[in-house]
Amino acid sequence: MTKPSARARIPAVGWLALLGLSGALDGCSSPTQPAPPPSGGQSFVYSYDEFVASVEPVLTRQGCDANGDCHGGGIRGTFALSPASAKDVHFDFDQAVLQLSGANPPSSRLLTQPLATSAGGTPHPYKPFASTADSDYQAILKWVKDGVPQ
User: Fold this and answer.
1) Mean pLDDT for each consecutive 10-residue tract of the chain (150 residues)?
2) DSSP symbols for 45-98
3) How far, in Å, CA of 144 to CA of 102, rounded?
4) Which residues make Cβ contacts (< 8 Å) with residue 145, sequence separation at least 6?
5) Residue 63's pLDDT is what?
6) What letters, b where the CB count within 10 A reaches 16 and e where it falls short, cover 113-131?
7) How far is Cα 30 from Cα 6, in angstroms, rounded to an integer?
8) Is 39 strand, coil or helix?
């Protein structure tokens, strides 16, 4: 009696799986450049200088910092800011940019959350902007609109 070959010992389903795996691995390679944004989206670049001059003063004036339960990050939310006692404007800028929608500036979380619900805002415990006509709201909106698509 002859010993069955290794090929005979692997069921047909096993061979199909191995062939499929080897075919899948042939198509895997490191990308040579980053993939384009989904749905043809764009990236935007925002002015740090304009943020320092126009937006950070609004955040400070409105009490939006990491003091107390506001914007300390972690379980409190996704918009973390530096505390007044250790102000880090670069950190605040980076965090604010994460809250923006360059394609549709008025829908940016940085604008909708502090806006009164009756004016189109979204849920947020503190509503410093009664309407979109508020000068602080307009300062932030201008900064978002000034973002340059890349």
Assistant:
1) 55 53 50 62 91 94 68 63 86 92 92 92 83 96 94
2) E--HHHIIIIIHHHHHHTT-SSSTTSS--GGG-S-----GGG--HHHHHHHHHT
3) 6
4) 105
5) 77
6) bbbeeeeebeebeeebbee
7) 34
8) helix
